Write a sequence for this structure.
Protein backbone atom coordinates (compact mmCIF):
# COMPACT_ATOMS: atom_id res chain seq x y z
CA UNK A 1 0.00 0.00 0.00
CA UNK A 2 1.22 3.51 -0.70
CA UNK A 3 2.19 5.84 2.09
CA UNK A 4 0.05 8.75 3.25
CA UNK A 5 2.09 11.37 1.36
CA UNK A 6 1.52 9.51 -1.92
CA UNK A 7 -2.23 9.21 -1.28
CA UNK A 8 -2.51 12.92 -0.46
CA UNK A 9 -0.80 13.77 -3.77
CA UNK A 10 -3.28 11.50 -5.57
CA UNK A 11 -6.19 13.32 -3.93
CA UNK A 12 -4.74 16.69 -5.00
CA UNK A 13 -4.50 15.45 -8.62
CA UNK A 14 -8.15 14.35 -8.67
CA UNK A 15 -10.96 16.82 -9.18
CA UNK A 16 -14.34 16.92 -7.48
CA UNK A 17 -17.25 16.17 -9.79
CA UNK A 18 -19.91 18.88 -9.66
CA UNK A 19 -22.80 17.25 -7.81
CA UNK A 20 -20.91 13.93 -7.75
CA UNK A 21 -17.99 12.18 -6.17
CA UNK A 22 -15.33 14.13 -4.33
CA UNK A 23 -11.65 13.64 -5.07
CA UNK A 24 -11.29 11.84 -1.75
CA UNK A 25 -14.14 9.44 -2.62
CA UNK A 26 -12.52 8.64 -5.97
CA UNK A 27 -9.17 7.78 -4.37
CA UNK A 28 -10.86 5.89 -1.53
CA UNK A 29 -12.89 3.84 -4.01
CA UNK A 30 -9.73 3.05 -6.00
CA UNK A 31 -7.96 1.62 -2.95
CA UNK A 32 -11.02 -0.27 -1.75
CA UNK A 33 -11.28 -1.91 -5.17
CA UNK A 34 -7.58 -2.84 -4.99
CA UNK A 35 -8.11 -4.30 -1.52
CA UNK A 36 -11.15 -6.24 -2.76
CA UNK A 37 -9.11 -7.69 -5.64
CA UNK A 38 -6.22 -8.57 -3.30
CA UNK A 39 -8.22 -10.33 -0.53
CA UNK A 40 -10.95 -11.63 -2.86
CA UNK A 41 -13.61 -10.61 -0.34
CA UNK A 42 -16.23 -7.91 -0.31
CA UNK A 43 -15.04 -4.78 1.51
CA UNK A 44 -17.31 -2.21 3.16
CA UNK A 45 -16.12 0.79 5.16
CA UNK A 46 -18.58 1.98 7.78
CA UNK A 47 -16.94 5.19 8.87
CA UNK A 48 -18.05 8.45 10.49
CA UNK A 49 -15.91 11.53 11.03
CA UNK A 50 -17.31 11.82 14.55
CA UNK A 51 -13.98 12.60 16.18
CA UNK A 52 -13.34 15.61 13.94
CA UNK A 53 -16.99 16.74 13.97
CA UNK A 54 -18.33 15.79 17.42
CA UNK A 55 -21.38 18.08 17.32
CA UNK A 56 -22.88 16.62 14.12
CA UNK A 57 -26.31 15.08 14.69
CA UNK A 58 -27.41 11.73 13.29
CA UNK A 59 -24.04 9.99 13.08
CA UNK A 60 -25.02 7.15 15.40
CA UNK A 61 -25.93 3.68 14.17
CA UNK A 62 -29.63 3.81 13.38
CA UNK A 63 -32.25 2.10 11.21
CA UNK A 64 -31.24 4.17 8.17
CA UNK A 65 -27.84 2.48 8.19
CA UNK A 66 -29.42 -0.84 7.32
CA UNK A 67 -30.81 0.78 4.16
CA UNK A 68 -27.31 2.02 3.34
CA UNK A 69 -25.88 -1.46 3.79
CA UNK A 70 -28.63 -2.91 1.61
CA UNK A 71 -27.71 -0.46 -1.16
CA UNK A 72 -24.02 -1.40 -0.86
CA UNK A 73 -24.61 -5.14 -0.69
CA UNK A 74 -27.26 -5.29 -3.43
CA UNK A 75 -24.82 -6.06 -6.25
CA UNK A 76 -22.04 -7.76 -4.26
CA UNK A 77 -21.10 -11.42 -4.73
CA UNK A 78 -22.20 -12.89 -1.41
CA UNK A 79 -20.00 -15.95 -1.89
CA UNK A 80 -16.93 -13.74 -1.35
CA UNK A 81 -17.77 -13.08 2.31
CA UNK A 82 -17.20 -9.67 3.93
CA UNK A 83 -14.45 -7.53 5.40
CA UNK A 84 -16.08 -4.73 7.39
CA UNK A 85 -14.08 -1.67 8.44
CA UNK A 86 -15.66 0.03 11.45
CA UNK A 87 -15.11 3.49 12.91
CA UNK A 88 -18.19 4.54 14.84
CA UNK A 89 -19.32 6.08 18.13
CA UNK A 90 -22.08 3.44 18.37
CA UNK A 91 -25.81 3.96 18.37
CA UNK A 92 -29.12 2.16 18.72
CA UNK A 93 -29.03 -1.36 20.12
CA UNK A 94 -32.13 -2.38 18.18
CA UNK A 95 -30.73 -1.04 14.89
CA UNK A 96 -27.43 -2.80 15.61
CA UNK A 97 -29.13 -6.14 16.23
CA UNK A 98 -31.11 -5.79 13.03
CA UNK A 99 -27.99 -4.83 11.06
CA UNK A 100 -25.97 -7.77 12.44
CA UNK A 101 -28.82 -10.17 11.57
CA UNK A 102 -28.96 -8.77 8.04
CA UNK A 103 -25.19 -9.05 7.52
CA UNK A 104 -25.21 -12.66 8.72
CA UNK A 105 -28.11 -13.47 6.37
CA UNK A 106 -26.11 -12.05 3.49
CA UNK A 107 -22.62 -13.41 4.32
CA UNK A 108 -23.12 -16.14 6.90
CA UNK A 109 -20.54 -16.22 9.65
CA UNK A 110 -17.58 -15.32 7.45
CA UNK A 111 -17.42 -11.63 8.33
CA UNK A 112 -14.18 -10.06 9.53
CA UNK A 113 -14.15 -6.76 11.41
CA UNK A 114 -11.28 -4.32 11.00
CA UNK A 115 -10.96 -1.51 13.54
CA UNK A 116 -8.52 1.07 12.14
CA UNK A 117 -9.09 3.37 15.11
CA UNK A 118 -12.22 3.25 17.30
CA UNK A 119 -15.45 1.28 17.34
CA UNK A 120 -17.51 2.13 20.40
CA UNK A 121 -20.67 0.78 22.01
CA UNK A 122 -22.92 -0.62 19.26
CA UNK A 123 -19.86 -0.67 16.98
CA UNK A 124 -18.21 -3.00 19.49
CA UNK A 125 -21.28 -5.24 19.35
CA UNK A 126 -21.03 -5.40 15.54
CA UNK A 127 -17.33 -6.26 15.76
CA UNK A 128 -17.94 -8.95 18.38
CA UNK A 129 -20.61 -10.51 16.14
CA UNK A 130 -17.98 -11.05 13.43
CA UNK A 131 -15.89 -14.20 12.98
CA UNK A 132 -12.63 -12.31 13.51
CA UNK A 133 -11.58 -8.85 14.70
CA UNK A 134 -8.39 -7.15 13.49
CA UNK A 135 -7.04 -4.14 15.34
CA UNK A 136 -3.90 -2.02 15.34
CA UNK A 137 -1.91 -1.20 18.46
CA UNK A 138 -3.68 2.17 18.60
CA UNK A 139 -7.19 0.77 17.91
CA UNK A 140 -9.80 0.23 20.57
CA UNK A 141 -13.28 -1.09 21.15
CA UNK A 142 -15.49 0.63 23.67
CA UNK A 143 -18.04 -0.06 26.35
CA UNK A 144 -21.47 -1.28 25.31
CA UNK A 145 -23.41 0.60 27.94
CA UNK A 146 -26.50 2.57 26.85
CA UNK A 147 -25.69 6.25 26.40
CA UNK A 148 -27.72 9.31 25.53
CA UNK A 149 -25.83 12.13 23.81
CA UNK A 150 -22.58 10.55 24.97
CA UNK A 151 -23.67 10.40 28.62
CA UNK A 152 -23.86 6.91 30.17
CA UNK A 153 -27.48 6.30 31.19
CA UNK A 154 -26.49 4.12 34.14
CA UNK A 155 -24.22 6.86 35.52
CA UNK A 156 -27.08 9.38 35.41
CA UNK A 157 -29.40 7.05 37.33
CA UNK A 158 -26.70 6.30 39.91
CA UNK A 159 -25.89 10.00 40.34
CA UNK A 160 -29.56 10.84 40.95
CA UNK A 161 -29.88 8.01 43.48
CA UNK A 162 -26.76 9.21 45.30
CA UNK A 163 -28.03 12.80 45.33
CA UNK A 164 -31.39 11.67 46.71
CA UNK A 165 -29.78 9.60 49.47
CA UNK A 166 -27.42 12.41 50.49
CA UNK A 167 -30.15 15.08 50.49
CA UNK A 168 -32.50 12.88 52.55
CA UNK A 169 -29.68 12.24 55.05
CA UNK A 170 -28.70 15.93 55.22
CA UNK A 171 -31.03 18.55 53.73
CA UNK A 172 -28.13 21.03 53.40
CA UNK A 173 -26.61 18.80 50.69
CA UNK A 174 -29.27 20.08 48.29
CA UNK A 175 -27.15 23.21 47.82
CA UNK A 176 -24.25 21.05 46.67
CA UNK A 177 -26.39 18.86 44.41
CA UNK A 178 -28.59 21.59 42.92
CA UNK A 179 -26.12 22.78 40.25
CA UNK A 180 -25.49 19.16 39.22
CA UNK A 181 -29.12 18.02 39.11
CA UNK A 182 -30.51 21.03 37.22
CA UNK A 183 -28.86 19.63 34.03
CA UNK A 184 -31.20 16.63 34.02
CA UNK A 185 -34.72 17.18 32.74
CA UNK A 186 -37.39 14.66 33.79
CA UNK A 187 -37.71 13.41 30.19
CA UNK A 188 -33.93 12.86 29.96
CA UNK A 189 -33.95 10.89 33.22
CA UNK A 190 -36.87 8.81 31.91
CA UNK A 191 -34.90 8.05 28.73
CA UNK A 192 -32.02 6.88 30.92
CA UNK A 193 -34.37 4.53 32.79
CA UNK A 194 -35.71 3.13 29.52
Amino acid sequence: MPNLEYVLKEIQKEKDDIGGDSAIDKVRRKYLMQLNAHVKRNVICYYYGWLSKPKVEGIEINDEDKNGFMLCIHQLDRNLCLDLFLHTPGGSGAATGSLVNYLKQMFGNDIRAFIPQISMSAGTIIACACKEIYMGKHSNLGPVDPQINGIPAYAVIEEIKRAYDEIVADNKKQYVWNPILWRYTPSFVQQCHW
Remarks:
- Helices lie at 4-13, 23-39, 63-73, 93-107, 122-128, 153-169, 174-181, 186-193.
- The chain has a mean pLDDT of 87.
- Residues 40-144 form a domain with the 2-enoyl-CoA Hydratase; Chain A, domain 1 fold (CATH 3.90.226.10).
- Strands lie at 42-47, 82-87, 111-115, 118-119, 132-135, 140-141, 147-148, 151-152.
